[in-house]
Design brief:
This protein is mostly helical. The chain has two domains: 11-89, lambda repressor-like DNA-binding domains (434 Repressor (Amino-terminal Domain), Orthogonal Bundle); 91-129. The chain is built from seven helices and two strands, in the order αββαααααα. It has helices spanning 11-22, 34-41, 45-53, 61-71, 75-78, 90-103, 107-129; strands at 27-28, 31-32. A two-stranded antiparallel ribbon has the order 1-2. A hairpin with a 2-residue loop joins strand 1 and strand 2. Helix 2 (34-41) crosses helix 3 and helix 2 packs across helix 4 (61-71). The radius of gyration is 19 Å and the shape is elongated. The mean pLDDT is 83.
């Protein structure tokens, strides 16, 4: 099977791709609209500028959290450490990443993971069948 590997990105590259993917108001005239992004994330425009210029690669956690909230992704995704479905090929890319990780663990660990997934699915189905509390 020919699978495309996820390659970790820089914070600046990830932020640019997120803005480009989101479009207006965060991406305008082929560049990031820093003031709109800063306002939405609750950070200064200077913080955004430093990230995009590469001046800082490890901003304060609240900056990363604010950006994650704007784009509805995890902080690890903002940092470029994990794939983002809207950028990296959707759900298929995430599934492929999970499969690669799964194949790297021992057969015993794989069994435990599968048991956990089955248990979670059973819990989800059970919760759908149960009436809401107080009903």
């Amino acid at each position: 099977m020919n699978r495309k590997a996820f390659i970790k990105r820089s914070l600046a590259e990830t932020l640019t791709l997120l803005c480009e993917s989101a479009g207006l108001p965060y991406y305008k005239n082929n560049k990031v609209n820093q003031s709109q992004l800063a306002k939405a994330a609750g950070v200064t425009q200077g913080a955004i500028s430093k990230i995009l210029s590469g001046y800082t690669t490890s901003p304060e956690h609240y900056v990363i959290e604010g950006l994650a909230n704007v784009f509805d992704v995890t902080t690890a995704q903002v940092r470029g450490e994990n794939p983002i479905s809207s950028i990296d090929g959707g759900l298929e890319a995430v599934k492929e990443e999970m499969l690669r990780d799964f194949e790297m663990v021992s057969p015993e660990a794989q069994k435990e993971i599968l048991q956990f997934i089955k248990w979670k699915a059973e819990q989800a189905n059970k919760n759908q069948d149960d009436p809401p509390a107080g009903a």
